[in-house]
Design goal:
Layout lengths: L4 H7 L1 H16 L4 H9 L4 H13 L6 H14 L1 H17 L7 H6 L1 H17 L3 H15 L1 E3 L4 E2 L4 E2 L5 E3 L4 E2 L4 E2 L4 E3 L11 E2 L4 E2 L4 E3 L3 E2 L4 E2 L4 E2 L7 E4 L4 E5 L5 H4 L5
Parallel strand pairs: 1-4, 2-5, 3-6, 4-7, 5-8, 6-9, 7-10, 8-11, 9-12, 10-13, 12-14
Antiparallel strand pairs: 14-15
Helix pairs in contact: 1-2, 2-3, 4-5, 5-6, 6-8, 8-9
Length: 265
């Protein structure tokens, strides 16, 4: 039986707010009642809702929604860090994206958030040595969302991927906490190396639209990469780089560029 709403609010105010937003959405748009009930109101917690959403979005004739739901439920039960990261990502989108007015929006409508949670499920499978299932999720995310993140890549918490079109993140890439990136970002290699060959993005970095960061290089904490830049060398902490190839053009301009989302040079 579902938990009373008051118990949910006392235990998890974020989830209570999400449920309240969903209930209001049903009142305002009854024709979408099925979506809000299936996506939010039929569930008793954020992990359960995320597991259901991932299963529904990633299902195909090759793998059913029921089987994917069992995998997702297993993952969220085994690793509380998945839900912790999903919550941090959700708050990041809500706080940084001016187009996000409710917590319920990313869960149901924002492909950047959904693709990131699907990657997290694939990364969990990768760590369980379930490589083929992880690859299956990778290709489904690529087909559905236009986001191609290798399941072995490591992503921190509080990540926002805005618009999330044509995102590519390679196998040995590392992305820290509280990073923001816009569409058409590539964290890639520079050749056919087989070892550690992808960028390391430190905490608090803002990566502008269309930026390409290539090779086993470090982008220092709280730095900014201007839109359209091609970064081929290490970037010091708290700096702004721009151009092709990218060069240092100044300081980061603020303490938390990934939060402010200010992209002017």
């Amino acid at each position: 039986m579902a938990e009373p709403h008051s118990q949910i609010a006392a235990f998890d105010p974020v989830w209570a707010q999400i449920r309240s937003e969903a209930e209001e959405a049903v009142r305002r748009e009854p024709l979408l009642g099925g979506l809000f009930h299936a996506g939010i109101l039929h569930h008793t917690s954020l992990p359960r809702a995320l597991a259901s959403r991932m299963a529904m979005k990633l299902a195909s004739p090759e793998l059913s929604e029921q089987l994917l739901r069992e995998i997702a439920d297993e993952a969220y039960a085994a690793d509380p860090g998945l839900a912790e990261a999903g919550r941090a990502d959700l708050v990041a989108v809500y706080e940084r994206d001016p187009a996000c007015h409710r917590l319920v929006q990313p869960i149901l409508f924002f492909k950047g958030y959904q693709a990131l949670q699907a990657y997290r499920l694939g990364h969990w499978l990768w760590r369980q040595d379930r490589f083929d299932m992880a690859y299956y999720l990778q290709i489904r995310v690529s087909v559905l969302f236009g986001v191609d993140v290798h399941p072995a890549a490591r992503m921190g918490k509080g990540i926002m991927i805005d618009h999330a079109h044509s995102i590519v993140i390679g196998e040995t890439a590392r992305v820290g906490d509280n990073v923001s990136m816009l569409h058409s970002v590539t964290l890639g290699g520079t050749g056919k190396e087989e070892e550690d060959r992808h960028p390391k993005i430190c905490d608090g970095v803002l990566i502008g639209a269309g930026a390409k960061v290539l090779g086993n290089i470090r982008v220092g904490r709280c730095s900014r990469i201007a839109a359209g830049s091609v970064v081929l060398q290490d970037v010091p902490d708290c700096t702004t780089v721009a151009g092709v190839p990218a060069k240092i053009v100044g300081e980061a301009g603020c303490a938390q560029p990934s939060v402010s989302m200010h992209q002017g040079i």
